[in-house]
Structure formats: structure tokens, C-alpha cells
Amino acid sequence: MDDALKKKLTILADAAKYDASCASSGAPKRKAEAGGLGSTTGAGICHAYTPDGRCVSLLKILLTNYCLFDCAYCVNRRSSNVRRARFSVDEVVTLTVEFYKRNYIEGLFLSSGIIRSPDHTMEQLIRVAKTLRQRHGFRGYIHLKTIPEASPWLIEQAGLYADRLSINLELPTEASLERLAPEKDGAAIQTAMGQMGERILQAKEEKRRFAPAGQSTQVIVGADASTDESLIRTSARLYDHYGLKRIYYSAFSPIPDAASILPSQSPPLQREHRLYQADWLMRYYEFSPDDVAGATESGMLALDVDPKLAWALRNRDRFPVDVNRADREMLLRVPGLGVRAVDKIVAARRHATLRLDDVARLTSGLKRARPFLVAADYAPTRLTDRLDLRARLAEPPRQLSLF
Amino acid sequence: MASAMASRTIRLRPGADLDGFRAAVRHLVADEIPPEAVTWAEGDAPSLFPDEPAAGPAAPALALPRAVATLVPAVLMHRDPERHGLLHRLIWRVAQGERHLAEVASDPLVHRLHLMRKAVGRDLHKMHAFLRFRWVGAGDGSGEGSRERFAAWFEPEHHILAEAAPFFAARFPSFDWSILTPDGSAQWDGRTLSFGPPGRREDVPEHDAFEAGWTDYYASTFNPARTNLAAMRAEMPKKYWHNMPETAAIPGLVRAAGQRVGAMIERAPEAPVKRVPARALAAMAAQEPASLEALNAIIRASEPLVPGATQAVLGEGRPGAAIAFVGEQPGDQEDLQGRPFVGPAGQLLSRALREAGIARRDAYLTNAVKHFKFEARGKRRIHQKPTAGEVAHYRWWLDRELAFVAPRLVVALGATAVLALSGRQVPITRARGPSDFGGKPFRGFVTVHPSYLLRLPDEARDEAYAGFVDDLRRAASLAADLAPSGAG
Ligand code: SF4
Question: Taking every annotated instance into account, which residue ranges of this chain make up the domain Uracil-DNA glycosylase-like (chain B) (predicted)?
Fold first, then answer.
């Protein structure tokens, strides 16, 4: 690899890292054809972790970090003084293929600053994906970040080559977008998401290959005044209406050469973490947005306890729950019991009566679960009424990030 | 009745010896030998079973619940020397009547076996993730002789090589590779996967031309403001690091992180050096195709949604035509000639237009879908109806196209055209006649597609054809009524 290319890679990877999405999941299982390259496993693979604890799965780069837009939160906005670079289509293709062959990556996540016009930019992104698929028989994962301002037919063509498409919402309200991203148009973003959602659904029904891993989006947390409750309600709407596979919450992070209208502070990582947990509760634990909202304090999720525990503390009358009798839905509400632990409990209790020791073998969260459950040899001593329960279960404050 | 036997020693091949273990367990169960009476050993000496003469012919296969049968091969890959004994205990208890034991995850034995399976699964996953290939060379010949060769050194924690290798064969069939481990090696030559003796780290090249670039990438994608070493180590334990080139960057990244973040937070925003690129911004907004030719150039350059078509078949006729006809999609002839309505259905349409008093060259003719879709049957290409999703993909172009042509009346030929124009599936029998396509800026008229007439039996065709010509006449007079000069 020559130095010029290495330098570009450094600049354009640095510029892309603020996009939180890293997943290589959701694509149907595929194998390479003879002479081709690449496969997908369904669940995705993280090939390395950086010292921020985040997964390195895809070669995540921008085609260019030149941009005509001026989004205040973005390191690539036109008014920023960062170093700029631009890859050619072939350079991205070569990097992807060579990195892939060495088993460094699962595929490519390609995004771009907007140069010349949204359509021109979108065409370049599509050309990279198409070259990988057609010229190299590449069956690995491709995630294309879609430019919502591009013409609708281009947006749809991206789905022919990509596994996953994303259109970033970035800010949850129109007002914030207007203030911080003057060239962006909230309505256009949502229209594009809706259009994409429809096409993906339709293609699935018609058994055509079109963005089989669905679409995702990212919302920045902490760059505007939106509450957690409004973020969660927005998410619920996006999951519902546009069939999004995933929503990424990205704690607003200080960037080199930041804009003056934004807070200069450490990223709110704990808040981001709580939002992911709340999102998780809605997707896998049968919590409604109202349930989550009910666990907030003036719209904000607690930082010292997780949202499930916060909900349980507010709804103490629904506990304790008997692990040998309660239905699955209620077991899922017990703090400290994950979906897997609950499924194991349900399977095991068909053939055995569970005591506290048994439960301890099925979950690593027994400390949190204990006050809320009943087992054959155990009942909490009115623990659920104790006023200091929250303090006893709260986590010591620390910098945390799961993703 | 089985007699209480003296303790037995069973010797299996080292590693995950599934066949040996299965044969041994069949005998042990058949002879009702309890786990306490068995000592398991690994080594190259031949196994006591299955051909121990005293045991007689091979013992019958065991019918084990699925949850047990799937647990056995996974646990056998574990490096724990107790694995055979633990599995034997599980199978023993199941055979004694605890049929559902493996589902009771809270049972201490099952719990331990589940943890072992999990450890093996994790090791497999990490091998798929963390193994790094290095380029060894490429043949200089042509064809087969020019294949590239790669090699990797990896130290799995458990006996997983045989289980892990097929993943790499499915992913990297196009070059030769070998994976060397302290327990054995795997080779792929483009056709077969084979296993061999242990390898040595020195057998893999020390460098690779892309490692420095990859390490730079790794360093650049790290965000110092989010440093979280515990999370990194939990997912990428240190024991893997020495075989992963990029981890060399970690100490430097961690050392500099605090200072980098501090600098970013403290630095006052700088005034942008660049002026606002007003001209570029204005130009950016003007990306919409400005003319029918520009739109057609885009369509021509676009990939068909369903592969196979020779070319895009564009609309034909005069912009400003009073009537536009929208068909379904090009057929075989249209696809080859690159013009709409030139096949049998098109010829029938031309005839009907003539009889209805419409000059084909004064009208605009196009299709809802611009590429031919077919199923190849021998040499013949059999037309296939576009799906609703395909129609929706192409509707953007149709909308723009009609906006440029700006006809006074648009005639939808058949249900696909109606779907493209109105976004709704409506049976032609119901929609036939004047229509506004649910709020389009032009008037509309719905009739059948001429290919429908071709498919009718002879006796029905004449009447249907007459009805079609009649529809076209009505459409023509509707268009005439809509003419600006004729209004009022
Ligand atoms: S459009 Fe906005 S968010 Fe995207 S690269 Fe340009 S400035 Fe950044």
C-alpha cells in the first residue's frame, strides 16, 4: 500500500468514525461462488475492537470528506478546517478486497460528504458497490449510507447492491435540524426512509434481492435539547412506520475543529448506553414506549440504574414474581433477567422446581433480580418495600459504553 | 445382567475424537457401566473400543434426545480433560431415565456442560474473527497457476480447527490458503479442504504489505473521547493480541487519548478558512434532469432492476403530444430494437390507432417499466409480468417523463399502466373509461393492453378489438375536448 493511499485512508476513516453503526448482521447466509470472494454469516463478526470498546467489523470510510453541507455537529462540514481527501472508486474497491482477503473485515460501510450534487455523490457510492459485486464477485457485507437528497431512483438503486442502507436522521426534531443542519430537510429524510421501507418490504414479498439486511439510522444524542422520552418515541415510530432494523444512538462527541454553537464536553456515554437499553426493552422485552416513558424522570432516563430496574422500582406492586409460575412476559420484566435467562427458566421449570441456586446458574444478574423474585426456597423479605432499594442496586458512576 | 465391572480405562485420540467417544459410550451404556467406573485418557495408543474383543460386536446406537446429541460434539472440542467423563455422566443419567436433563439448564452438570459449549462457541467465533492471513505469493502461470497463496498462524484455545476451517473455505475459495496451529493445520487448494500436522509460526511470512495500512485504519477509527479499555478487553482478550498486527497500535493510542480529547474540548472554534461556496451550493440544487433527453440519458445508463434486458426502451414521440399511451413493459422485439410497441402487440396497437383516427407519430408512446423481463425457455424468451415492486421502482421515471411530455390526456393500456399511474391495483373491467389516476396533473383514460387481445380466442377477439378501437376513439375525442383552443 503506497503512502498516498495510506494517508487518504487515515483521513477518510477518521472522518467516518462518528457514524456509530458497525453491524454486519441481518444479511442472509451467503457463500462465495468459485472464483468469487466473501460470505455472510447472518449474525455478523467483529474482527477487532478499538480501545473505545467498539467493534471493527466493516471498513468504515467516506468516499470523500469534502462536503457542501454545513451540519454543525459534523467534522466534515464545509466550514470545518480539517484535512480533506478523496478516494477514487477503484481505490475503495481495492482496499475492501485486499483487507477482506486478509480477514480484517466483513465488508464495507461506505458513506460520503456531498460533492457536486447529492445525485453525483450517490452515483459514486453505487458505483463502488456495483464494482465490488460485479467485477469481484464480492459476497461480503455492504452497507451504503444513502444521501436522502439524492433522486429517488438512485436511492432505490443502492438497494440492488447493498445489504443494508441507512439514512441518518441525526437530529430528532425539525427545529434542531433547521438550526444545526441548514441544508438538510427533515421531511425529505423521512420521505426517503418511508420510500426505502416500502421498497424493502415489497422486495421481500416478491422475493427479490433488495437491501436484505434492511435499513437503519442514527440519531445524535446530546447535541440538542431533546429528551430521552422524545427520542424513544421517535424511535418507536421509526421502527413501526419504516420497518427500521436498527436505530443507533450516538453520543455527541467532541470533534477536532468544532463549531461554536455546540456544547464542548465529553460525550454523554452513559446516557447513550441507557437509550440503547431502553430501545432494547422495546424490541425484545415487550415494553411499550409508554412503559419506557413511565421509567423516566421529566423525560430523562436515570443514569444510575438501568431503565428496566427503574421501571420495576416504580411498579413495585407487580413484584415479586414467582420464577416457577409467572408467565414469560412478566419474567421479562424482572431486572437482571435477560431474554436468554428467561427462556432457560421457562424450559427448565417444566422438568424441575427452581430454587434460588438454580436461578443463580441461569443469570449473571441475580443481585439485581433477587428483590423481585420468588423461588422454591426463597422469598424476598419485603425487600420491594424498602426505601433504600434503589440506592442498594444503583451502579457506581463510571464511564461506560457497550458499543 | 451386567456385572459390576472393575474400573476401565478408555483411551481416545487427542482432541475432539467424536467417533471414538461415540463407540465407547455405546459399549458403556450397553454394559451398564457407570461413570464412576471409567477413566478417560487421551493419547495415540489405540482405543480400547470399539474393537475390544470382550465387548463383542459393535454396540447398538443410542437414541439420545436432540439436546444431548447436539451438546456432545461441541463439548468434545473443549480442552478440559474431564470432558469425556462429564459427557458420560450426562448420557448415563439420561439413559437412567432423566430424558429431559439437558433442558434443565439449572442442573449443575448441565450448567457446566453449557458453559463448556459456550466457551467452544466463543473460541470458534474468535478464530473466525481474529485470524489474519498474510500474503505468501502467487503463481506466475495462467489460470490455476496464477492463484494467490495466503497463510495464517492461529492458536485456538480448544480443539476447533476442523470445525472452524469450512468457514474460511466458503469465504475464500478463490485463493489457496493454509491455517497453521500448534495442534494441526488446514489447507485449501481451491477444491478441497484437507488437514495435516501441526505447523509453526515461522512457516508464515513475517509481514504483509497491507498490515501497516490496516493498522493505520484501526488507529483512525478509534475515538479517544470514548476510551473504554475494559470493554475492549472483554471482547478481545489479550491472549489473542500477539497474532493481530493492529494491536501494536493500542499502547500508543491509549497513552495519547486523554491529551487528544483535552485538546479538542479546550480548543476554541476557529473561523473557517474557506468562504461559503455559493456557486457550488446553487449548482448542487440543480441536479434534477432538466429535459426529456437528460432524463432519458439517466434511464439509458441505469441497470435494469431485473437483470437480462438488452437495453432500456425509452418512450417515443413528440414532447407536447396531445395523447400519451402508457403500456406495461417492452417485449422481446422491443428489447432487441430498442423501440416501444414494435412487436405483435405494438402492431395491433398501430392498426387500432389508425382505425380510431389517431396518427401514431403525433402521439407519445411509452411503457411503465423500461426493461424487458423474461424467462428463458430454450431459445425463446417468455415475457414475464412486472411485479408491483418493479412497477414502483420505475414510476419515478414515468412521472418525470410525462411531466416533460405534458400530454393533455394519458391513456393507460392495461392494469400495469394503471398501477404505475395511480399507485393502485384496479381491475381493468372496473377502471375502464375516463380516470384521473388519483390526482395526476393530466386527464386519463383506461383501456386494455393490446396484448390482451392477442391472447383471446378467435371468436372473442373481433368484438374485443372493436371495443378497444372504440375506447381509442373516445380517448381521442376527450383529448380534443381538452385542447385549450377548443375550450369554452
Ligand atoms: S451532509 Fe452534513 S453530516 Fe453529511 S458529511 Fe456533510 S456536513 Fe457532515
Answer: 314-473
Give the other-Cβ count within 10 Å of B175's Cβ. 18
Termini Cα distance of chain B: 110
Q: For B70-110, what is each residue's pLDDT tens digit?
A: 999 999 999 999 999 999 999 999 999 999 999 999 999 99
Dist CA A356 CA A379 (whole Å) = 9
From B125, B230, B236, residue closest to A48, measured CB to CB:
B236
- Angle (CA) B84-B88-B89 rounded to 5° is 120
DSSP element (H, E) containing B301: helix B292-301
- State the Cα–Cα distance between residues A145 and A167, nearest whole angstrom: 6
CATH of B292-487, one of 3.40.470.10, 3.30.390.50, 3.40.47.40, 3.40.250.10: 3.40.470.10
**What is the rounded CA–CA span in Å between residue B284 and residue B287?**
6
Locate cell 373481433: which residue?
Answer: B462
Strands B316-317 and B364-367: antiparallel
Is the CB of A361 less than 8 angstroms away from the CB of B104? no
Ordered by where they begin, the domains of chain A are 3-267 (3.20.20.70), 316-393 (no CATH)
- Annotated domain spans of chain B: 2-127, 131-203, 292-487
Among candidate residues A361, A290, A296, A352, the one with its CA nearest the CA of residue A324:
A352
Q: What are the grid coordinates assigned to A137, written together? A: 464477485
AA identity, residue A351: H
Q: Which residues contact A124 (CB under 8 A, 6 or more apart)?
A: A63, A89, A112
Residue A67 beta carbon below 6 angstroms from any ligand 1 atom: yes
Give yes or no for residue B4 having a pLDDT over 60.
no
- What residue owns the CA closest to ligand 1's atom 1? A69
Please answer yes or no on whether A361 and B108 come within 8 Å at the CB atom: yes
The verdict on ipTM greater than 0.95 is no
Q: Yes or no: say if A63 and A84 are a contact pair by the CB < 8 Å rule.
A: no
Task: Give B311-369 pLDDT, tens digit per residue.
Answer: 999 999 988 999 999 999 999 999 999 999 999 999 999 999 999 999 999 999 999 99
pTM for this prediction: 0.90
C-alpha cell at B466: 372493436
What average pLDDT does chain B have?
Answer: 90
Residue B57 pLDDT > 70: no
pLDDT for residue B112 is more than 50 = yes
Cα separation, B360 vs B145, in Å, equals 60
- Residue B380, SS3? strand
Mutate to test the interface with A, among B217, B218, B254 (most CBs of A within 10 A): B217
Taking all residues of chain A, what is their mean pLDDT, rounded to a whole number? 90
Whether residue A114 contacts residue A71, with contact meaning beta carbons closer than 8 Å, is answered with no
